[in-house]
Specification:
Length: 456
């Protein structure tokens, strides 16, 4: 077999391949065998039809077509390996010559990974938020815990902000009660803003047994977007009582004996969270600076496919689960279709660029992934997917996605390597020393976010 490579642009090549006919022998034999199992010829047992009879009855062309279809992937792969190419996606193959008993010639155009020059990235410098836990942060954390242990009790007074009212609702549009506009026994916290616009003002000041009407734009249902007259009946008013902030509360809400111990633990936990957030911020900013340093030619077909994949996933998975159409989503976001397409393209380009650059650093720095790192990453991905580790691992193996996970871990480690070489300072000018565990874990999340076009 002979092959040659023609560079069409920095991200696309054309392979020209010539194959001597004798190298098709194995595929020809397989073609005759396959056709033998599929057809019946009177006078011959199934599977025992001579090649010459198949040629006479069904045509030599059918056999050649079957043989070529079988052989092409092998010859294409050999040509790719011989030229040491890194193809992206499927090739566009064109058979240019097929002479029986003489020659098979074909061309294959395919996108390839562009050759990248990774410059010295040790000069990157970024600034991140200071990871300081204030007394106010601790008080807020304890207060949130206190809210979870609040109790409710009926009261015989007018409802006020923060109270929980049990209400019955009836919505009318143009004087007609909607079929799906009646609801009973709904608990609502006044001031939460989680029901209908206008309900807070309507129920504030009402006692149990009180009634009010108000106008509100419906957020869902058969009359979504229309103005409705809503009647609200208050059946009960309950006040929320928070437990006293003392040692008894600490024992109720935690494993600690005193409130001081509970606060000290909250401070430690918040410090860990802020350090992790700081590491994530450092990763994101360093990645942005790294991508500015590298010129990356963009494969057009790969970019087009990536844009379509992202759009499909958004429409049929994320929005579908929320019961939204793309048009409704754009309306909520206040974006035009053109603005959405431009953002999607920008995200796709960043995802592809991130993968190319970090993969180049993986090769340059000889970044490896051990079994423990892969297992930890798998556990984290399983948790975010809502599957058990065993279920997720089985799905990964069955889907042939182990190399993809290895690549994600390797890219995260590559980004952590760049961050380690960069200078990271907080807003007060102090150099930030990121711990290895925080650095590697947050780096993997940042890389995934860039790849998927989401916020980290």
């Amino acid at each position: 077999m002979k092959s040659a490579v023609e560079t069409l642009n920095p991200t696309r090549v054309r392979l020209t391949v010539e194959v001597p006919f004798e190298e098709l022998k194995a595929s020809l034999d397989a073609a005759y065998k396959k056709i033998n199992q599929q057809v019946t010829v009177k006078g011959f047992r199934k599977g025992k039809i001579p090649a010459r009879v198949i040629d006479q009855r069904f045509g030599r062309g059918a056999v050649l077509e079957e043989a070529v279809n079988d052989a092409l992937p092998k010859f294409y792969t050999e040509a790719v390996n011989e030229a040491e190419l890194n193809p992206l996606g499927q090739p566009e193959v064109d058979i240019t010559e097929l002479k029986d008993n003489e020659l098979l010639a074909f061309t294959a155009e395919v996108d390839i990974r562009p050759a990248l020059e990774i410059p010295d990235y040790s000069g990157i410098e970024v600034t991140v938020d200071i990871a300081e836990v204030t007394d106010e942060d601790v008080e807020k954390s304890v207060e949130q815990l206190r809210e979870r242990f609040a109790t409710t009790a009926p009261v015989e007074r007018a409802a006020a902000e923060g109270d929980i009212v049990t209400v019955n609702l009836e919505a009318k549009v143009d004087g007609e009660v909607l079929e799906d506009g009646v609801a009973e026994g709904i608990d609502y916290t006044i001031g939460s803003g989680q029901l209908l616009d206008g309900i807070d003002e309507a129920v504030t000041g009402l006692e149990a047994g009180g009634t009010a009407t108000f106008t509100s734009e419906l957020k869902g249902g058969s009359a979504e977007g229309k103005e409705a007259e809503v009647k609200v009946d208050v059946t009960t008013v309950k006040s929320r009582e928070l437990p006293a902030l003392d040692d008894d509360f600490a024992q109720l809400a935690s494993e600690f004996d005193t409130l001081d111990e509970l606060k000290a633990d909250s401070r430690k936990r918040l410090a860990r969270m802020k350090k992790f957030d700081q590491a994530t911020q450092a990763q994101e900013k360093v990645l942005e600076e790294l991508l500015k340093l590298v010129e990356v030619p963009m494969p057009e077909k790969l970019l087009e496919d990536e844009i379509q994949t992202r759009k499909h996933n958004l429409e049929h998975h994320q929005l579908g689960q929320m019961g939204l159409t793309l048009d409704k989503y754009l309306e909520i976001q206040g974006k035009s279709a053109e603005e959405f397409d431009a953002e999607l393209k920008e995200q796709a380009e960043k995802g592809i660029k991130t993968q190319f650059v970090l993969d180049e650093i993986v090769n340059k720095e000889k970044v490896g992934v051990d079994q423990e790192e892969l297992t930890e990453h798998l556990m984290r991905r399983a948790q975010s997917s809502g599957m058990s580790p065993d279920q997720f691992a089985q799905a990964v193996v069955e889907g042939g996605q182990v190399p993809m996970l290895v690549g994600e871990v390797a890219r995260g480690k590559a980004l952590a390597t760049v961050v380690e070489a960069a200078t990271v300072k907080d807003t007060e000018g102090n150099v930030v020393d990121l711990e290895d565990e925080e650095e590697t874990e947050s780096a993997a999340e940042v890389v995934e976010a860039a790849a998927e076009g989401t916020e980290a």
